[in-house]
Amino acid sequence: MNDTTGRQRFAEAARETRPDLALLCLLIAAEADPEPGEEAIDAAQIELDRLAGLLPALGRPAAPRRWAEALAELLGERCGFHGSPADYRRLESSLLTEVLRRRRGLPILLSVVWMEVARRAGAPVYGVALPGHFVVGFGEPLGGHVLADPFDGGRILSEEEAGLLVAGATGTPIAPAMFSPAEPAEIVLRVLNNIRAWAAARPERSDVQLWAVELSLLLPSHPARLRYERAELLVERGDFVAGAHAMEEYAQVIDALEPTVAETVRRQARAARAMLN
């Protein structure tokens, strides 16, 4: 699967009425390591199916807590999926194929594993994008839900404990709106934001930051500022013409609302073109 095919598939999958979260995360992993190709994507989907098949038959409707406990026993205890502080230093922790292989990852990728396995088994599951720490919810978001922390092996959380996680990560108090279900596109953008942050701290990996930005721009909704980040990266990597053009396009987008900033960006574009002389 070449870059063009993979990105076209990513863009199409992101715009589906019901986006396939696992597929989108696997296409991100394919961008990081295209060599395994379609076989790696198929193998990962098969592994998620296999894990779902290992869950006990709980019957319907099963209580949310029973689902949470069953996922924790299977994925956290038997299979050993969890995270540690060291996982924040590894790009693999944001790549679903590697998380399935290593059984280690960031909270959001481990939550993707929990959600995809649970969904295949028929559980009422959804992602909860708490600031600084992603978790999963079982049951009804507006009442009777149970929260679990896949990073901690699926430990069941009270809302008070979830509040402590948020306070520890961000220093801000928790709000009821934070427990709302996260949409697939929102989850994927957050995964890509993590990859961008990882690469931004490592200037030698600007290639990773660039593809993470470019995939983010293929999502139906994304911050306009990402266009400027892409332009800067292109210039930093020596593609002065493409970078200048991207800066000019961004300046045009923001001209009506931020004319002073737009003019500054146009000056940067001219400076980038001058580097060709």
From TrEMBL:
InterPro entries: SirB1_N (IPR032698). Pfam families: TPR_9, Transglut_core2. This is Protein SirB1 N-terminal domain-containing protein. Residues 45-193 form the Protein SirB1 N-terminal domain. Signal peptide: none annotated. PANTHER family: F-BOX ONLY PROTEIN 21, SI:DKEY-261L7.2. Belongs to the UPF0162 family.
